[in-house]
Amino acid sequence: MATADTVYNTTTTAHEPKSSKWIIVPSENLDKVRCVIKVIEVLLSLVAFVMEEVVSSCLQCGPLYFFEFVSCTALLFTLLLLILLVTPLHQRVGINSWPTLDFGYTSVIAVLFLFASIIFAADSGQTSLEQGAVAFGFLATVAFFIDSGLFLKNRGIPCRKGNNQQADNTPRPEIEKLNVNGTDSVN
């Protein structure tokens, strides 16, 4: 004969095994395909940055420095975002809307990389290193745009209301209050 504890434990107690995984893909924030694309973004940004850093002299250094800034930013922040999204660390950061952050960041970097690559291609010294850096800059740009496009295709625009956003937990004032005797009253 089963006791009440056994019956209730099997139906009311959550038996979730503790996840000791450090890398969680797919997750609610990142699927496998977009994870691979983010890794490609990091690698292409790294190659573009390294090739740009090896350039020893420049006639007009402004485009080179802008490309350097964008490629370095893309490398470091995409790597950070990737690490946060594939590990449980994102749960410890006080950000409630990872999809909005991910989509916004990826779209902005795609546009910045496009501008930086165009400007650097138009105003570089045309050495093989500069041309290689520009080529990898354009490849990284394509990867960032593909990532943004896949995000839109699979999840829609994250900033819109009605999309699968987390609930707003802002406290709201009560419109109706209860009387002491338990009946409703309208203010």
From TrEMBL:
Alphabetically sorted, this entry's keywords are:
Membrane, Transmembrane, Transmembrane helix
Sequence ranges assigned to domain MARVEL in this UniProt record? 29-156
Location comes to:
Membrane
| Predominant subcellular localization, coarse grouping | membrane
Q: Per its record, how is this protein called by name?
A: CKLF-like MARVEL transmembrane domain-containing protein 6
Specify the protein's topology with respect to the membrane: Multi-pass membrane protein
Highest classification ranks of the organism: Eukaryota, Metazoa, Chordata, Craniata, Vertebrata
Mind telling me which residue stretches traverse the membrane in this protein?
A: 64-89, 101-121, 133-152
Presence of keyword ATP-binding: no
GO cellular component terms given for this protein: membrane
